[in-house]
Amino acid sequence: MSLEIIRAGVRTTVQDLGRPGLAHLGVPRSGALDAGALRAANRLAGNPPGAAGLEITLGGLRARATRAMTLAVTGTPAPIAVGRRPADPGLPLAVPAGAVIDIGRPAAGLRVYLAVNGGIAVPPVLGSRSTDTLSGLGPEPVRDGDVLPVGPAAAPPPGVDVALCRPPAAALRLRVWPGPRDDWFTADAWRTLLGAGYRVSPQTDRIGARLTGPALTRARDGELPSEGLVLGAIQVPADGQPLIFLADHPTTGGYPVIGVVDPSDVDALAQARPGTAIRFTRPREAAAAR
Amino acid sequence: MHARRAGPSAILIELPGDEAVSAAYELLTGLRERGELTAAEIVPAARTVLLDGVPDPDRVFRLLPEDLSTGTGTPAKPHRITIPTRYDGEDLDDVARLWGTDRAGVIAIHTGTEFRVAFCGFAPGFAYLTGLGPRHHVPRRASPRTRVPAGTVALAGPYSGVYPTASPGGWQLIGRTRETLFDLANDPPALLAPGTIVRFAEET
């Protein structure tokens, strides 16, 4: 059983929940940027949460199912058609053998997830089928004409299930924890981060979301020796413009991290198009945790 | 020991130097193996060890011994690797000048040093090897090369390293090896995991 990719769209990659546990060897976590959306798609398709699906950036995918299969589409809402008939996101979809699936361009947000019962069964690399755009591990990005194997059905798809697929908010609030290197910045820089608005820059990819806005000024000069990085770390390079690390982030980095976006807000950030307004707020729990 | 929070589920532990990092890394991985510490990632670096994927950081803060750097854990017998190297790198003469010696002198110093993998990063399987004395630390090149071939043995700052895959790089190139540094068929896939003791041997 397979999924024949007629048109891959702007940027489509195979993603599961990544390869955690190998950062000490320099292997990035990788995995779906909007991990919650992939989990939901897998649940709808009858898969375990970590099965591999397609991460379709800005839509434009056309694929043919070689056999009858159940699939589900989640993430930011995009026009879907199965055999040229409109279909809904967030529901299990029965696809007859030979039918063509079209996923159009989302009106808002960036990433649509497609899961198929049985999962995309490309060979795993270090326990994961994710394409890691930083280190080049995992499958190549999906191209026109690719034939992606689909695994044996893991379980029958759920009878009735639904996942909410809402377009991302036009302005995003991200909860940010101070540190670990907030002391490398002026007190003013922290106030600026929380008070001023930022926007997602066009230089945004699976490695990180670059922001534009008021520069964050350092309280001290010099170089920070490389240190381990977490998902959602807000690194501030010399130009003072923050960069928030997403799934393909490097395992270590040498620019100071002023704060960390709460991991539960990272999925929403992964859907933010260039130009999206970002505001940072302090999580209530962070005040006590120092 | 000084530990800092890095978000709701991570702790960055600061240590005085690379030997303390190695000791703390051994201690923390030992605690995890014995089920006394839950962490998805334990990431050593130049002056820090990051614990990430920690369900209850406040509990770990209390659990950590005051001095991690003395390594009260039971250190595993370190893995030892010898890397056969052909010393014909493009920057060999520059390094010789920086060290006030000649090519043979660079080779003698590099093969005479017992290195240790302090940490990995930059690319899967790229290991930062410590062991050279301060006298033999070298600056990075003023402008990085666009492509350094896989297997290139190089120096920068206090470190020596071997490029596991072809990539851009600003280190001083002194030689090359045919060893495979990162092999997906191996477990672990990195030849040089943190804590590994490394010697280079001249291959003629």
Q: How would you characterize the overall build of this protein?
A:
The complex is a heterodimer of chains A (290) and B (204). With 290 residues, chain A is mostly beta strands. Helices cover 10% and strands 31% of the residues of chain A. Chain A contains 4 helices and 20 strands. Chain A has helices at residues 35-45, 187-195, 266-269, 284-288, and strands spanning 2-7, 11-15, 53-57, 61-65, 69-75, 80-82, 85-87, 93-95, 100-103, 111-116, 147-149, 171-178, 198-204, 208-212, 227-228, 233-235, 243-245, 252-253, 257-261, 277-281. The longest helix of chain A has 11 residues, at 35-45. The model of chain A has no long low-confidence stretch (mean pLDDT 94). With 204 residues, chain B is an alpha+beta fold. Chain B contains 4 helices and 13 strands. Chain B has a 4-stranded antiparallel β-sheet, covered by helices on one side. A 4-stranded mixed β-sheet of chain B has the order 5-13-6-7. Chain B is elongated. Chains A and B meet through strand 15 and strand 19 of A and strand 3 and strand 4 of B. Chain A: Residues 24-290 form the Carboxyltransferase domain.
SSE order and pairing:
The complex is a heterodimer of chains A (290) and B (204).
Chain A: E1 2-7, E2 11-15, H1 35-45, E3 53-57, E4 61-65, E5 69-75, E6 80-82, E7 85-87, E8 93-95, E9 100-103, E10 111-116, E11 147-149, E12 171-178, H2 187-195, E13 198-204, E14 208-212, E15 227-228, E16 233-235, E17 243-245, E18 252-253, E19 257-261, H3 266-269, E20 277-281, H4 284-288
Parallel strand pairs in A: 12-20
Antiparallel strand pairs in A: 1-4, 1-11, 2-3, 3-10, 4-9, 5-8, 5-10, 6-7, 6-9, 12-19, 13-14, 13-20, 14-17, 15-18, 16-17, 16-19
Chain B: E1 2-5, E2 10-14, H1 18-33, E3 41-44, E4 48-52, H2 57-63, E5 80-85, H3 92-99, H4 103-111, E6 115-120, E7 127-130, E8 145-148, E9 152-156, E10 159-162, E11 167-169, E12 172-176, E13 197-202
